[in-house]
Amino acid sequence: MFHINSSTGKLMTKQSLDREMMDSYELKIIATDSGKPSQSASLVLSIAVEDVNDNPPEFPQKSYTVAVKENEPPHVILSATAMDKDIGYNAIIHYTIIGETSSFYVGELSGNITTLQPLDYESSAQHTFILKAFNPGEPYLQDTANITVTVEDVNEEGPVFDKPSYHQILPDSSIAGTLVVDINARDENKSYDEGIFYSITDGNSEGLFNLSSTTGQLNLTRDLSKQTVPLYYSLTVTATDLGVPPLSTSVKVSVMIAPIGISFPVFSEAVYQPAPLSEKALPDTFVVQISVLYNVPVIYSIVSGDENGYFIIDPSTGIIRTRKNLTVEHFPVSFNVQATDSSNHSIHNQVSVTVEVIDENNFPPVFPFSLVEEKLEENSPATQIVQLKAQDNDAGRNGFLTYGILSGDRLKFRIDEATGILYSTASFDYEEEATEYQIVVYAEDDGIPEKKRGYCTVVVKIIDVNDWPPVFDPVNTFSVNENVPVGFIVGRVTATDRDMGDNAFVLYNLTGGGGNIFEIDEIHGDIKIKTSPDYETMNKYSLTVNAINNKSAPFYQATATVMVLVIDVNDNAPVFVQNSYSASINMINPVGAHVITVNATDKDQGQNGLVEYYILPDLNFSQFFLIEDRSEGKIITTGNLSRSGEIHLTVMAEDQGSPSLNGTAMITLNVLDNSPFVPQFNNTEISVSVMENTGVDHLIYTFAVAETLGKQIVYTIVSGNEAGHFGLDPKSGQLKTAINLNYEKVSQYVIFIEANENPSSATQVQRSGLFSQNVAMLKISVQDVNEEPAFSNSVYSVRILNSVPYKYPVITVQATDPDSGENGLLLYSLVHHETNQFDIDENTGQIFTVSVRRWAGTVSLQVQAADQGGRGLTAQTTVNVIVDASSSDNIVVIVLNQMINAVERNIAEVKRVLEEILAWNIYIIDFYSNEFERRARESTDVTYLKIIAVDEAAQEIPAEDVKRKLTEQKIIIQSELEKIFETSVTADVGEVPAASVSSELIATIVLSVLLGCTLVAFLVYVFITIERSKKQKWFVGKKTEIIEGFDNPAVADINESPKITEKPEHTNNVNTEITTFTSMEDTQGGDADKDVFEAEQKCDYLETLLLDLESEHEGNVGAQPVAEITTKQNGFLTDKNDEPARPLTPDPIIHTPDKELKGVRFSEVAVILDTETEQDEPDNEDLFFNNN
Description:
- With 1188 residues, the chain is mainly beta.
- It has nine helices and 78 strands.
- A hairpin with a 5-residue loop joins strand 35 (413-415) and strand 36 (421-424).
- The chain is elongated.
């Protein structure tokens, strides 16, 4: 968001800031100089992002729907509040309605939408308008929302009966269930009885009647009793509809019980009181029907009481109707109706009818305006706000009005119910309380049968008055750099006024000191530079800022003191006290010799006035001087100068300001020549060699200088003898050994020797350079001298069983030799050892068994270690081997479900596990995968181990005890072995196989058979050779050929000189096979009979081969050369120094082109015990037993 100019420090924005995303930033500013090492300072800069009106108000939704019941008095139906992401004045939201405004009002600041009058569903079922929210400032930003008001229908009229009243006469002989009357009512456009609920609400205390709630039929609940006089019942029946809310209407039902056989007409009611008539009833309006119980028709007539002639009666039906318009003032009227026997006018009866006329409340009160807006200043005492007058077109009590407050703050307002004057009851505070009040006032008449109301909404807006003084926000101390330009803003002071509008308008001005340097923006409060300040003139100002709101009375003023600190700017360069300096100095000086001290001053303060001194570099002399302390200007020497005479240096004084300023001065130095005599070596780099172990005081080298000029020369060791291995005579220069040198510890030394006239000057010259002519470097190479090896012990003891196999490891002895290279190469051997029971590995020193079967006792072996590969110095030690007799009865076989090659690799770990768990010494005397093919190493899943256990007293543990313990510890053994093999392991105890022929016996038999075969083959060969020589002498003189790949490739010609022969092309078709026997390498196992059989087969095969050679020769006489059979010396049966044997015959050998032929000397017969070669398998016994 920000970036800073690394040179000027000017901080700028990289993009526009959005206060709504982040309203403040905290930056760490680091200033770093260019020195080495660089120095830095840092400060934390807090940046507050000021708000601008860049966000419009936003409604949370674009449309609102609200449902309002019709006829409800004015009230708040919706609060649609918009949000503005800005703050302060920019976030003030005003509301207004666009469109229909006669029925609705919205609070200017609250956003509350209010109905101004009760809504009428029948007039309009839906109202739509637009609500706008806007900011009053600049720019003008707004948002709108669509408002839909749905008017819900309300049940306004109750059920209407088909008659205004019901009259019925029943004889006293009527029985239970007799229908008295069928009452019918209906609701609006529905049919009779549809959706109507009927009930008797009065007059049935005796329970004589039962009314069906759905049909309206009124029945008797019991039989009537005989009556002597008429009995009258007046019931009230109510019909209720299913509207919301449900409405009810009641009707009067009159029932008369008349005796049978009466002699005069009996009216259905004692007195008729029909429902009141409206003053607006038209002529011929039904009033009531008169009925009688009589056995003959009667004639009805009005006989008295209707002097104004308002009514007329039908003489036959008894229905009374109005004759003309009615005058309310003449009512109520009571008149008499007479029923006369139509056949005998002397029989008649009269009843009284009372009729009332009411003045209907036709009109509700109406205010001139549905909305009245009034203003009231804050802090005003209780006062009259407005007088409201409503008009009612009714007369009398229907037009008599009273006033009241339906809704609003009744603690703040009241109304005179008679005059309609609205008063405030308390003062208002614009800053602390609401600024707008809505009071719904009603005017109510005293109408009959119901009172009606009219409504008016009064909006009272509280007006702000200037009752708060400005208040300054906390003012921090400002700082400004000196020399800033005019108009630069130092800082801003802000005073706030809790009033609004002009009452909150504040102007700023400056008083007091600093008026000629600073000025203030009277509107925004920005303190600016009027004249650039100078730190050196004045660095601190105290400003008095006044804030005045003077647009409306009364005027208020506030004062704040602002401190402004002037920050020093590096505007003054350092100035030397003198423009030039001069001094004298010797050419030969010790390091750090004082030359001169310079001084400079800087008018600035702090870092800007902090001066450091530097010597400007040049090509000649600056390297001989330095500033001892950069802040003091003291110049010292780094050593001796290169020449005498006058030299010049330029010194610079630089301040620590940013950017830094500097000044320079010239220093003239007079260099005096005081150089001493410096001896010189002829050769400064010398190399010598010395043998190790020469002892102390052995002369290494004698140092001497080219010339002394008759002065005493002193020799000293400068470096390389920190360990004190050498001593140097300071006068003679002889370097001798101080210790006995050891090649193995240090093989080379590098020593620096210095020659000086005297010790004091030596130090001075030495500092002028390590490789100057008075310093010589001596490289001493220490030559290695062969030293004797040594065994760690002079005597070793070990114990084994005589049942262990061939090459069983007995013990490993090792010697150490301090030498390195060839001198430290040791070979081991057994000396003075005349038996063949043991042998030793010459490289590792491991002693192993050769054959100890059936032999017990103690043998002492003398082991020798010789360095230089066995040709140098020697050391000897004695190994006492105790061979204990063992019994085959104590051999135990362990069967593992692992492949033999896996067991071979981990045999040492298997032995360790068995010894740890069984707590005995364990000898593994053999292991194999098949008893009859022990040399086989295929991937068999079972491996057999033959072991013998021995206790600490070297006594064999009986096999049964071993087996028992193996069985007891089987689970533990298997668990430990699983850790080794990393798979599931089973370890079972097996049975020892029956004894087989020993390997020694097998070897003897096989060797004897093969020697016999060899002798026979030799005789056959001699015979064939003689025969060939007789028949092919002419061919022998021409050509002798030795086949490629012979072990003895050189054959002798007539002059005893070797000659390389070539294979003739005509021998390519000859198919001859030569069988080569290899030496016997292993006799440790296998089936003896099988081995003998295989040896005999090989002997027969050789004889057959030789006969084939002879037959082929006879069939190719004169065309094919005779094959030459040669023998090769083998160290198994002959001396190593024997020379290769001469060929017995010069006849060339015949061979196939696909096989290599190798010569065989019969004195070196190789015996093969097993034809299966194991080229990929290492020696099993070496791998198995090489575990110590």
